[in-house]
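Backbones bend. We report:
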Amino acid sequence: MRIAVLANLKSNAPTYEGMPADRWDDLDSPRAPDAIVAALQRMGHEAAFFEASILPPFNLIESLSTYKPDLCFNIAESHFGDARESQIPAVLEMLQIPYTGSRVLSLAVALDKAMTKRVLKSYGLPTPEFQLFESADADINPELLNEDGELRYPLFVKPNAEGTSMGANADSIVHSVSDLRARVAGHLARYNQPILVERYIAGREVMVGMIGNLPNLTFMPILELDHAAYGEGHSGVYTNEMKTVSGLDAYRYQCPAPLTDAQTRELQHLAAETFRATDCRDVSRVDFRLDANDNDKPYILEINPLPGLNPGYSDLCLQGLAAGWDHERLVAAIVEAAIIRHGLREVLPI
């Protein structure tokens, strides 16, 4: 089978005046697509990497028309727009080329954190109370305020359509209306997009990775970010810098997470229902907080239908290693799920 691996490299990203330093932190280094290409080739496939841009000099449409792939392995994040992760899948659907992972609408919804939370609420799934701010002086939802007009509980402030924990740090937790408005104003100026404000859930942070399609999802061992291991000065927030700056050697986690069987079953059930509600395909990771003030009740923070696939580094890959899966097996499982779903001519062994 001929497979085109589609990704966006940081080194190929556009630059512009006033661009935030973390603007392209969600894009890939060559390591991830190179590892995927190598894994596919070891499986006996013909595989090549293509920068996922239709613009010159990359000209993806022309490149794919020449290469004629049977399947695209899609990890493209794209560059601009609040539904940017859906742009390359939309092109592939226009070209009638099958691809791995979730489809256009699911990717657009999942990148929009507020829209995802609306979908989750419509399914009765637990997600923290929230409000979307398009201006710093917008009226605050009365549900978030107490009888004195102050915040009912700490709130967490982050950009609505970014990944890789961009904009998340200790200052994201606000305790007063004035701090909330100041933080929203700063994010509006920096990220030029609506800002999500949600109830801050103090407690454990866990991630559930899934491969396959309903009703046959394979759950990876649950990964817990070990906030306590970072010491007293740690904010308890999974920041962008924890791996992109500090590196994997300083990353503190437990996988499998120390959970009871009942907790594991509940988290897997909620992850599968989130996968179903957002109509995802082939692979996803769902991030949770367990409320320390309510008997570790799980709250869904978001679903990532394009989880990182850097071997031995990305959270899903670390979960795979805990299950005894090397990177090649992880890639093979994603490809197999897509092949079965698309009804293509071969099924890869795992």
Residues 231 and 346 are 50 Å apart (CA to CA).
